[in-house]
Amino acid sequence: MKDGILALIIGAIAGVLGGSFGIGGGILIVPALVLGLGFSQHKAQGTSLVALLAPVGILAFLDYYKRGDADLKLGGIIAAGFLFGALGGSRLALATDEMTMRRAFAAFLVIIAAWLAFGKV
User: Fold this and answer.
1) First CA to last CA across the chain, in angstroms?
2) Model-wide pTM > 0.85
3) Which of 12, 78, 93, 117 is least buried, going by the fewest C-beta atoms within 10 A?
4) Per residue in 23-60, pLDDT tens?
């Protein structure tokens, strides 16, 4: 039961961040599952995908859409790329050992953070 409560809290925080910043919940969900619940990197990534498969962002999307802040055409094109990219990415990730995946994920987050903080606008 304790894990279920922690999972609900992780989901709620990921939902707030997703709705606020338009980020994938995996930025929070994956590390929280690894560090908070002791999941392997691969299991955390797979579990995060389970959570994101459902239309969890639909209500946030509707708010953005109502204000005219959602480009459906480009969003659909991104979704198509995401569909096939995710398939290739999952195959690559599952063929890579856990510690390498954990380090690659951490490096990705650092690179994105640095790009956002110091990149030209």
Assistant:
1) 46
2) no
3) 117
4) 777 888 888 899 999 999 999 988 888 888 767 778 88
